[in-house]
Amino acid sequence: MYLAFVNLFPILIAFILGFNFTRFYSQLSIGAFEKISNACLYALLILMGITVGLIPGIMDKLSLVGINALCIATASSLSIAVVLKIFHLRTRSESGEQKPLDSGQAAAFDIMGYIKDPLLLAGLVIIGFVAGFYRLIPDVNYDPLISWLLYLLIFVIAVKLSYSGLNLREIFFNRTNIVMTCFTVLASYIGAAAVSVFLPLSFTHSLAVSSGFGWYTLSGILFTKMGDPLLGSVAFLCDLFREAIALLLIPTLSRIGNGNIAIGVAGATAMDVTLPIIEKHCGVSYVPVALLSGGIITIIVPFLIPFFYSL
Questions:
Q1: Residue 70 CB contacts under 8 Å (≥ 6 apart), including other chains
Q2: DSSP secondary structure string, 240-256?
Q3: How many other CB atoms are found less than 10 A from the CB of residue 183?
Q4: At what angle do helices 229-256 and 275-282 cross, to 10 degrees?
Q5: Do 151 and 15 touch, CB atoms closer than 8 A?
């Protein structure tokens, strides 16, 4: 609980300050904030790749336990996308919302429109990974820089959100958004349970690994402290893969589906690492939903991992 609070508190402070910034300084250039947002986003992706590349023995971990981690990450992410798509279709039909036009009617299919942003995002992470792995940059602790860039980015996003005229109370206390978060958690376990049949991991250990929801900086540490460093490596890589899958899928999901599906796939990272991607591709109106979903999941992760591991 303490770790979740430590991670969540400064993010909420940055968001609150940004959302109320216009009360004290109204002469703002949204274009300038957009440039700052993109610069922070790209820098964070490169730094993320660097920190992964600097991990001792990262290639050995990828080869030894990577297949188990990749299977759980893929199954969990796919299950979330399918379950939330069904949930979206049901809630849309119940509310009488009209179906969107077929993509072939709305516009000609543009393959580059779907792959350009995922390729850019992946390319930045790969550049950082190569720089870190081959020690092309100093081997120092980049966590403080990453944290401050993240807080600045969330501050900027909140400033832009303050111009949208959205009612945050309606979003944060929306029953549908809370139910969507619960379905995200359940769907992740459905995917992990299904794929556990084909893996050397036990059913409960697969669920425990899936309980990281993309928070790779915590999951590996928890398993190691519980006396299972090997499973900690699986959990670390699983959450690393889930974050990478989210970074690649969010731009596409935002174009062909519903923004809530992208938020669900992001898991715990929806409130931090993938939040700027969600804002950029889904729109600023989805930022409060992402903070709500990511915040709830972040709070329960430290409890769910030990719970399923001890079963």
A1: 237, 238, 241
A2: HHHHHHHHHHHHHHHHH
A3: 18
A4: 10
A5: no
- Which is more confident, 130 or 225? 130
Residues 6+ apart with CB under 8 A from 139: 54
* CA dihedral sign, ordered 30, 35, 39, 44: positive
- What is the crossing angle of helices 229-256 and 216-225, to 10°? 160
- Helices H, strands E: what count in the chain? 14, 0
Q: How far apart are CA 212 and CA 198, in angstroms?
A: 20
**pLDDT (tens digit per residue) in 30-87:** 777 878 888 887 888 788 788 878 878 878 777 767 889 999 999 999 999 999 988 8
Is residue 189 within 8 A of residue 305, CB to CB? The reply is no
Count Cβ atoms within 10 A of the Cβ of residue 36 and give its class: 0-12 exposed, 13-18 middle, 19 or more buried. middle
Q: Over the chain, what is the mean pLDDT? A: 80
Residues contacting residue 249 through CB under 8 Å, at least 6 positions apart? 77, 81, 118, 262, 265
pLDDT for 266: 93
Rounded to an integer, what distance in angstroms lies between the CA atom of residue 166 and that of residue 199? Answer: 45
> pLDDT for 250-297, tens place per residue?
888 877 767 889 999 999 889 877 888 898 888 888 888 898 898 888
Q: Which of 255, 210, 270, 253 is nearest to 81 (CA)?
A: 253
